[in-house]
């Protein structure tokens, strides 16, 4: 247990994978492969969108935002997760922990916002296709991107900065291989009411509100699609939403699972908490490039062409 005498700048012990310490070297192999897939997959999506003129349209601009967010999420956790598995890191400073917490939560809110923007894109494309290009102009997409960035980065500092001024008198042992806001306030002996209330406000105003608006948009999309007379046209319209629906499920299901484990799974093994935490962090960045590469015809063809050219 880390000494807690230095309350002004404490260090925190990172929890790796309890019970699997002797297998860390072997665990490093699949985790390194996952991180490599996250980086290469999202970089490939960004490269394809940037270099293919036919993909320069609103839906793919939002997809580029999603890929960039996923790429940054992977970069924010790779130092601590692989650092533990490779035996290079056992504890981190408060400042590093606060910075990592800021990026993890900020990027999570950003991904939720991008998914909401993508649902708006699908709503306009299906419910008002004749005005699609006039509504989602490049200028408006840029403004949406700036709004997403501002919403995700400027609302979090009040609750994150306050972490610097709390006294941490409880055992400095984190629940995961990375830092989360709820983990840090659990160790604090100071008044944490502001962090708890403001943190709840952020979750409600970002994740919960976004999920409700996404659901409403799909209810309206479904209402419009069911009014189409042709069965083939209905199927074709819904198929354009499959990738986005999959991305929404890939993002929200791990969050719900992690929340349920934290709330009702206190009797579960710490390994379950660690695995759920890593799933919440790594599953969306890993799966989104795969989903869009398989389900989006334009991207799939461009990637196939890219590999074909390299093979020749």
UniProtKB/TrEMBL annotation:
Record-annotated membrane-spanning stretches: 24-49, 61-89, 101-120, 141-161, 197-229, 241-265, 271-292
Membrane topology: Multi-pass membrane protein
Keywords (A to Z) from UniProt: Cell membrane, G-protein coupled receptor, Membrane, Olfaction, Receptor, Sensory transduction, Transducer, Transmembrane, Transmembrane helix
Location within or outside the cell: Cell membrane; Membrane
InterPro entries the record matches: GPCR_Rhodpsn, GPCR_Rhodpsn_7TM, Olfact_rcpt, OR51/52/56-like
CDD domains in alphabetical order: 7tmA_OR51-like
Pfam families per record: 7tm_4 (PF13853)
Top-level taxon of the source organism: Eukaryota
Keyword Cell cycle: no
Occurrences of domain G-protein coupled receptors family 1 profile (ranges): 41-292
Alphabetical list of Gene3D superfamilies matching this protein: Rhodopsin 7-helix transmembrane proteins
Keyword Repressor in record: no
Chief place where the protein resides: membrane
PANTHER family according to UniProt: OLFACTORY RECEPTOR, OLFACTORY RECEPTOR 56B1-RELATED
Stated family: Belongs to the G-protein coupled receptor 1 family.
Protein name: Olfactory receptor
Gene: LOC101649689
